[in-house]
Amino acid sequence: MEPLFMKPVFQEKIWGGNRLHTVFGFDLPSDKIGEDWAISAHPHGVSVVENGAFAGQKLDDLWQNHKELFGNPVEPVFPLLIKILDAEDELSVQVHPDDEYGMKHEGELGKTECWYIIDAEPGAEIIYGHHAQTREELAQMIQDERWDDLLTRVPVQKGDFYYVPSGTIHAIGKGIMILETQQSSDTTYRVYDYGRKDASGNTRELHIQQSIDVTTVPARKPELNVTEVKEGNSSIITYLKTDFFNVYEWQVKGELHLRAHAPYTLMTVIDGFGQLSVNGKTYEMPLGTSCIIPNGIAEWVIKGDCSIIASEPGVKE
């Protein structure tokens, strides 16, 4: 058994740029790339395995036909999606549904997500929550376009972490790069898009009624219980343990020994360079590398000087 390294899937966006090339070294198809879908089985951008016995196979096919790689899961679709986002401009103000609403109205999972801030320009902000106290007030403030009164703006810096449950009004601001761990969903309801027009001169669609339907009112700010465990000069930071996913940062200074705590583990190198050792075999892990540790690999070692965001499926009670 060996790790499954994934080929990136790039998504062009109106707000995208070229820092996935200048920072991560990816060969981009345009200079308006907003997202690297690093690990994905979503039909809008499916990852392909780059190495080993499964080279050339798509992640969604592996999920259906080689369930043993993932601990024989019962879920019909691979539940997680890992992205690196480059916001050269503001993203739309948006909100995502929960699973019940998403399945009923869109035929797919809802979208709870979380963000690790890889980099942020001085003065960069995110929108994270709102000030409406009732759904009626929310609807009225949206109708009146009272965005400064409605939206909560939060300054961010490199290394910050935010949990964004479904129902949270949010937006990533200009000059921010993030690693996003999310449910495997591409359902986004736009509340506001700054009146922008696409390359064809059209304004993008808004989803006002759906946004009002799914937004959590009043807004709730999740409390994080971040913990850190040291191993020599290296450390494991636990950011989240939820029904949807568990998320960690592995800070490697020298080496870090790790064990599986779930049927499979996802990882992406967000800083530096590392080497992954599994069953006596070593794999290079340069900046931007993403892979899955499949079921059957109980332990592994990472050496080098790097930071990795890792995740695993949550356990629903």
UniProtKB/TrEMBL annotation:
Keyword field contains Zinc: yes
Residue stretches making up the Mannose-6-phosphate isomerase cupin domain: 236-312
Single Gene Ontology MF annotation: zinc ion binding
Domain Phosphomannose isomerase type I catalytic, chain residue ranges per copy: 5-103
Catalytic activity: D-mannose 6-phosphate = D-fructose 6-phosphate
Co-factor requirement: Zn(2+)
The keyword Plastid is assigned to this record: no
Class of the enzyme per the UniProt entry, highest EC level: isomerase
Keywords: Isomerase, Metal-binding, Zinc
Cofactor details (free text): Binds 1 zinc ion per subunit.
Domain of life: Bacteria
Gene3D superfamilies: Jelly Rolls
Active-site residues, as the UniProt record annotates them: R190
EC id: 5.3.1.8
NCBIfam families from the UniProt entry: manA
Family, as annotated: Belongs to the mannose-6-phosphate isomerase type 1 family.
Protein known as: Mannose-6-phosphate isomerase
